[in-house]
Amino acid sequence: MSQLAEKIAAAKAQLDAHTVESVQWHFHESTGSPYWLEKAKTFKFDPLKEVKCFDDLKKFPHFEDEELRGGPINRWIPKGLAGKPAYVFETGGTTGIPKSRMVIEDHWIDYENFSDTLPDEYFPKGSNWLMLGPSGPRRLRLAVEHLAQHRGGICFCVDLDPRWVVKLLKKGKIKEAEDYKDHVIDQVMTILSANHDIKCAFMTPKLLEALAMRLIDEGSSIAETGITGIFAGGTEFTPQWYRTCREELLGPDVYITPTYGNTLMGLACGKPFDPADNYKITYYAPQPRAVIETVEFKDYNQLVGYSQTGRVKLYTMTKELFIPGFMERDEGERELPHDKYPWDGISGTRPFHEYAKTTTVGVY
Amino acid sequence: MFDIPILRFGQTYESMERQPVVHFDTGETVAQLHQATGAMVKLDLKKAQKARDALRAVPIPKLIDICKAAARMYLEETLPCGNGSLSPAEFCRLQSATTGLPENMCAANMRKNAFVLGHMDQVLDALTRGLPYDILTNGYGKESRGVMVSYQATTPVFGMVLPNNSPGVHTLWLPALPMQIGLCIKPGSQEFWTPYRITEAFFKAGLPREAISVYPGGHDVGGAVMTDCNRAMIFGGQATVDQHAGNPRISVHGPGFSKIILGDDVVDRWEDYLDLMVDSVFANSGRSCINASGIWASRHTKEIADALAQRLGPVVPLPPADPKASLAAFTTPGAADAMNAQIEEGCKADGVTEVTAKYRNGDRLDKRERCDYLRPTVVHCTGPDVPLANTEYMFPFVSVVECPQNKMLSQIKQTLVCTALTDDAKFKQQLLDATHIDRLNIGPVKTVQLNWLQPHEGNIVDFLFRARAFQNTPPEAH
């Protein structure tokens, strides 16, 4: 068996064991959440007895995302974690009743795990961070701030309200949206000029682009601000944009890694840049805490072949939340396991084609 | 299949994102268009001054010679197109294949573009009102009457977000290059052929490559062109016009609502003008903003509508290569259906009668496997306030509107081209004073007949240059 095959097998065994452990926790009368304990009464199988591996999760009916809208939010808190301080995080740009997720410490754990994937050379321990993206009810600010603190730094934050941007764009107020973006970048420029020894940053692709342009306008560059490492995510991140970013916006001295994440999954890491990939961006979910499958458009229980296109199906299995098969609003191509992440990945993520026409993309 | 890269101020750039472009009738992929990003455009525009500098290194008379040489090459030669090359006939065939415009109209539009290029000295002379060329190059100088004038370029490059409807619109931006202003072009997703071909002709004729960028791509590319070029033109519907109204940086080109007006003094002789009316409505398959979409008269409107309907109603779609083909296909799914539904709804109103129906022998909407056609439609409106009285569609569609002469100018609203048939001196003066009419023809001139020595939809010189005061010696005491 090759070294990669051994890693794949080990990861699969770990996933199976983690799945059983998660189901036992979430469906046991003493530790499970009110939501799942109630839901289990409607199942035609007993999760506690009949889930022995990851594939057994297909016995669950499809999870309806509407279940995440509205309250009471407390129904999601597992009895085993009752009494702990809890957060609620909401979906990004959605107006109306948003999908909510109860979180206790998962966002910290996600980002501590993610921290292990960052090269210290570009994200020096002890240096300060810039968080440029949505805060408010989103988890991003708290998560990035924790990442900075976990690595021994302090995080400077600039807020962006994606719901306001969506409203402006839907009304065709392009100028106002541009003004708002300028307002955000003005604040970043002020922070960067204040000698805070910021070397690392999270930015959304659109804001990274806007900041780089502003700096170029002023005869400077992101590299000249002292930033050496950026992880970017939050909106569609295309290979062409990645290439433009590396070749023209950042230059050779600034490291950038694409990420793909949301409040249910945590943070999927991008496969390290490889010239042989020709800027293809491949994400790997933070297994075993979350799993991504790429499934057939007409049969969500059927994986597509490698390199084939399918819809993103997400499994969340943490102590705090169990979601067996959430159909994401994205599609992409299934990718082979990688030495660093020995499980399936996904590339080319983009809005699910049936929703794409009605979705306002790229608001932050 | 043609693989067509991005052109970044003369340098070709192969994008990782490519958009297939299909033949509207066969579904065959005929080209693959590389897709730029907004970031790419914004980055390049930081260096836009280099385009103007390169052009200013070439004297304007030399640039005019280049235009003339390019005109001939564009019209007659086999020129590069991405990874291949195209003869003029192949060019028309492919342009027709992606736009739906019959090949004979593609050829006619080529001649139109070539005419402007080939007569660039006369065009510039007319547009600048005889300004010595070195004033444009240097920014100041003395006119022939000895007066110091200054014309400051408002931008190093002229941005444009171009449409798909007709290749004739490219005539509008051609004079920018010999005035030493570079180009930043976002071509239409189906009609990218002309910008690329003209660019290749220019390069072959000796134009500095740094002068032109062509960025096919999505909305973010258009957005970057519009926000980062100091001067830009955009084409679109009424919503686009409204969005950019009053913005001095943007020249917006929307629906034309072009009209023919018959004065009371000539309306009894309306039959003398029937050919003029038919051609104004029907030329170029009614796709242009200069096609007449309204014919206004105080009487005989029913007879006028009927006579037009007799001529236009029987017209049927023909294959695009047929030299007699006169109707363009709608290649965007759903577009023809939507227009047809709007017209059907409008015709239900009191005071609106579709006159073509009885001469058409079939439905207005002709649906095919991969495209649709809308057959010519003439409606009669009993007054200016009824639905469809002041509308415009991208096919031969005209409303014949009954309206007293003394009410016409207050009712016709914004009008790009107005052909007024009248000898009434008072009415002519009122027409001359009407600020909501852009191009005015008084007399038997078809709305589609343009004189390229006249400004079209504003004067590009006024848009790209700013007249200002300049002194390099103290003025005389006074």
Beta-strand fraction estimate of chain B = 15-25%
User: What is the rounded Rg of chain B?
Assistant: 23 Å
Q: What percent of the residues of chain A sit in helical stretches (DSSP H or I)?
A: 25-40%
Q: How many angstroms separate the termini of chain B? A: 71 Å
Indicate the radius of gyration of chain A in whole angstroms. 21 Å
Largest sheet of chain B: 7 strands, mixed
H/E series of chain A, N to C? HHHEEHEHEHHEHHEHEEEEEEEH
Mean pLDDT over the residues of chain B: 95
**Most extensive chain contact?**
A-B, 19 and 16 residues
Q: Which residues of chain A sit in consecutive blocks of at least 5 with pLDDT less than 50?
A: 359-364
Q: Strand-residue fraction of chain A?
A: 15-25%
Name the overall outline of chain B.
globular
Class from helix and strand fractions of chain B: alpha/beta
Quick summary:
The complex is a heterodimer of chains A (364) and B (478). Chain A is α/β, with parallel strands linked by helices and 364 residues long. Chain A contains eleven helices and 13 strands.
Describe the overall structure:
Chain A has 364 residues and is an alpha/beta fold. In chain A, 32% of the residues lie in helices and 22% in strands. Chain B has 478 residues and is α/β, with parallel strands linked by helices. In chain B, 34% of the residues lie in helices and 22% in strands. Chain B has 17 helices and 24 strands. Chain B has a 7-stranded mixed β-sheet, sandwiched between helices. In chain B, helix 1 packs parallel to helix 9, helix 3 packs antiparallel against helix 5 and helix 4 (88-99) packs across helix 5 (103-118). Chain B is globular.
